[in-house]
Design a protein that fits this description.
mainly alpha, 24 helices, 5% strand, elongated
Length: 544
C-alpha cells in the first residue's frame, strides 16, 4: 500500500509539473493550441485519423484520406499509434482534435516522467532520486520547446526498455525477454525516431555489459536477446510494412546532406531558452533543437560517475553509454561513424532530424543525476548530516525545474471548424479538393484543410506531411490556377466531386463560379463555400 501511495503521489507531482510547465494550456485545453505550427495540426489530424480508422477500417489504417489518390499516405509521416490510442476515447466521445492533442501532450510528459522515476527509484532505492530523474527526463528545454511534436514527449517506454534489458542480462529468463520486447515495441509504435533511439540505446547498453557476455550463461543470454528481437520484429512488421512500401514506391530516403542540415552543433548542446538561461541562449543564437540538460543534472551525473564504483555498477555504465551514443548521434553525418551506419542501416535513412537523437543524452543524464542524488544522500548520512538530505533533494529538484521553466507558453486560440464541412459528411462518395490550392513551397498551408477533414473524412486531394509525393507537385501545377479551365480539367481527371472554396482568400472565385455550369453551390457558411462539381458532358451517362 505504501508503494502504491508513493506511486500515486509521484503521478500527482508530475501532473502538477506538466500543468506548470505548459501553462496556460491546462486552463483551456480545448481552446489553446499551437496551430500556428503546421506540425501541430498534422499531429492533431493523425491522432484523429487513427481514432477514426481503427474501429472502422483497421486493415486500411495507413490509407489515410490525404494526397488522394495516393495510398499508404499515413506512412508519409509518423502513425503515432500509442498516443492516439491513449486519447482515442476522447475522439469517440466527440472531443475536438485540438483537445485530444493537448491531452496527449500532457499525458506524454506525465508518463515519461513517471516511468523514468519508477525505474530510477527501483535502481537506487530512493524516491527523491526517482523524482529528480523524472523531472529532468520530461521537463527539459528539449521537450518543452517541442510541444508541437506529440511523439517527442511520449518517451515513457524507453526507461522501461532499459529496465527490462538490465533484468534480462542479470537473469536471462523468458519473461524478461518478453518484457524487453514489449517495451521496445510500444516505444517504437510511438515514433520512428524513438524506434531508432531505443534501438541505439539498447545496443549501447548491452555492449557495455561485457561481464554478462563472458559468464557461463552467456549463450542463454544471447538466445533470450535474440528471442526478444525476433518477437519485436514480428509484432512491428504490420506497422513497418507500409513504410517499406512507401520507401520503395516513392524513394522516401533522407539524403546525407539533408540529415546534415538537421543535425546538432555544439551550440545546440548549450541552447536553453528558459527564463533562467535565456541570457546565454540569446548570445548563442540557437533557435531550435535545444539540448542542454541543465547544470543540476550535469553536476549530479558527474557525481554519479566520479567514483570508480560507478564504472563497476552495470546500470550507471549502461546509462553513460546511452548518454554518449545520443551525444555523438546528434551530430549526424558530421560524426564520421554516422555516415557508415547510415549506409549500413536502412532505418537511419528515414531519419532526417539527427539532432533529435540528442534526447537520449538528456534522458540518460537525468537518470544518472538520480544516482548522483543517491550518492549525495549517502555521503551526507555517512557524515552525520542525514537531516539535510530531504531539504537538499527538494532544493535540487526545484532548481532542475527552474532551469527548464519557460511558462507561460505562447498559444493561439482554436475557434472550431466551419459547420460547412458537416455538409460533406452527408455526401456519400465525395472526393474533395480545397482552394486556394497551395503549391509545393507552401504545402504546409494544407494543414488546416486536413484538420477540417476530420468533420467528414472524405478523400482529400490536399495534404501536408513529412514527405511530399511527386503526384502532389504534378496536381498543384494545374490546381493553383483555380478556377481556370486547366484546374477543372485536373479535377475531372482526379475524380473530384466536391470543391471547398475559402472566399476571403480567393475573392474573385465567387463571381466566376456563380456563372460556371460545372459546379453547383450546396453550402456557404462564414465565407466557406462548398460546391458539388458536375461531371463533364462526356463523362455523364446517357439517359435511359
Amino acid at each position: 500500500m505504501a508503494l502504491r501511495n508513493r506511486g500515486l503521489a509521484a503521478l500527482a507531482f508530475f501532473a502538477a509539473l506538466a500543468v506548470v510547465h505548459t501553462w496556460p494550456l491546462a486552463a483551456d485545453p480545448g481552446g489553446y493550441c499551437r496551430n500556428d505550427n503546421a506540425d501541430t495540426v498534422l499531429n492533431e489530424w493523425i491522432l484523429a485519423w487513427v481514432a477514426h480508422a481503427l474501429p472502422s477500417q483497421p486493415l486500411r489504417l495507413f490509407d489515410a484520406n490525404i494526397f488522394y489518390p495516393e495510398s499508404n499516405t499515413l506512412a508519409f509521416s509518423e502513425h503515432l499509434l500509442v498516443p492516439a490510442l491513449l486519447v482515442a476515447p476522447l475522439a469517440w466521445l466527440g472531443a475536438s482534435p485540438v483537445l485530444a492533442h493537448n491531452v496527449a501532450v500532457l499525458l506524454g510528459l506525465v508518463l515519461t516522467a513517471a516511468s523514468t522515476a519508477w525505474v530510477v527509484t527501483r535502481w537506487t532505492g530512493r524516491t527523491d532520486a526517482g523524482l529528480l530523474a523524472g523531472t529532468v527526463a520530461a521537463f527539459n528545454v528539449n521537450l518543452l520547446t517541442r510541444l508541437a511534436h506529440v511523439q517527442a514527449v511520449h518517451a515513457e517506454f524507453l526507461p522501461l526498455a532499459l529496465f527490462a534489458l538490465d533484468r534480462l542480462l542479470s537473469a536471462p529468463r523468458a519473461r524478461h525477454a518478453i518484457a524487453l520486447a514489449g517495451a521496445f515495441v510500444l516505444q517504437s509504435l510511438v515514433s520512428g525516431y524513438l524506434l531508432v533511439a531505443t534501438l541505439l540505446s539498447l545496443s549501447a547498453a548491452a555492449l557495455v555489459r561485457w561481464r554478462e557476455w563472458t559468464r557461463p550463461r552467456a549463450r542463454r543470454t544471447a538466445w533470450r536477446l535474440a528471442a526478444a528481437g525476433g518477437l519485436a520484429i514480428v509484432m512491428l512488421a504490420p506497422f513497418l510494412a507500409p513504410y517499406i512500401d512507401v520507401r520503395a514506391s516513392h524513394a522516401l530516403v533522407r539524403s546525407v546532406d539533408e540529415v546534415l542540415r538537421y543535425s546538432a552543433g555544439w551550440r545546440n548542446w548549450l541552447g536553453a531558452p528558459s527564463h533562467l538561461h535565456a541570457w546565454w541562449n540569446g548570445a548563442l543564437g540557437v533557435e531550435a533543437d535545444y539540448l542542454f540538460p541543465g547544470v543540476v543534472a550535469l553536476a549530479l551525473a558527474v557525481l554519479a560517475l566520479w567514483r570508480r564504483r560507478a564504472w563497476t555498477d552495470a546500470r550507471t555504465r549502461m546509462l553513460a553509454a546511452v548518454a554518449l551514443v545520443g551525444f555523438v548521434a546528434s551530430f549526424g553525418p558530421a560524426f564520421p561513424p554516422y555516415r557508415w551506419a547510415y549506409e549500413a542501416l536502412p532505418l537511419l535513412q528515414g531519419i532526417r532530424g539527427a539532432a533529435r537523437l540528442g534526447y537520449l543524452t538528456i534522458l540518460a543524464t537525468g537518470m544518472l543525476a538520480g544516482f548522483g542524488l543517491a550518492r549525495l544522500a549517502e555521503t551526507l548520512a555517512r557524515r552525520g548530516r542525514a537531516s539535510w538530505v530531504a531539504p537538499v533533494a527538494v532544493l535540487l529538484i526545484g532548481l532542475a525545474n527552474l532551469e527548464a521553466w519557460r511558462a507561460p507558453v505562447g498559444y493561439v486560440r482554436y475557434d472550431g471548424l466551419s459547420p460547412a464541412y458537416s455538409v460533406l459528411a452527408g455526401e456519400p462518395g465525395a472526393v474533395v479538393a480545397e482552394f486556394p490550392f497551395p503549391g509545393p513551397i507552401a504545402i504546409a498551408e494544407n494543414a488546416p484543410y486536413m484538420l477540417a477533414s476530420t468533420r467528414h473524412w472524405r478523400p482529400l486531394v490536399n495534404g501536408y506531411s513529412g514527405f511530399m509525393p511527386a503526384s502532389y507537385v504534378g496536381h498543384s501545377r494545374a490546381l493553383v490556377t483555380f478556377p481556370s479551365d486547366e484546374a477543372f480539367a485536373m479535377l475531372e481527371a482526379l475524380g473530384v466531386t466536391h470543391i471547398v472554396v475559402h472566399e476571403a482568400r480567393l475573392p474573385d472565385a465567387r463571381a466566376v463560379l456563380a456563372r460556371d455550369p460545372r459546379v453547383r453551390l450546396i453550402a456557404r457558411i462564414d465565407g466557406v463555400a462548398v460546391y458539388r462539381r458536375r461531371p463533364a458532358p462526356s463523362a455523364q451517362r446517357p439517359a435511359p
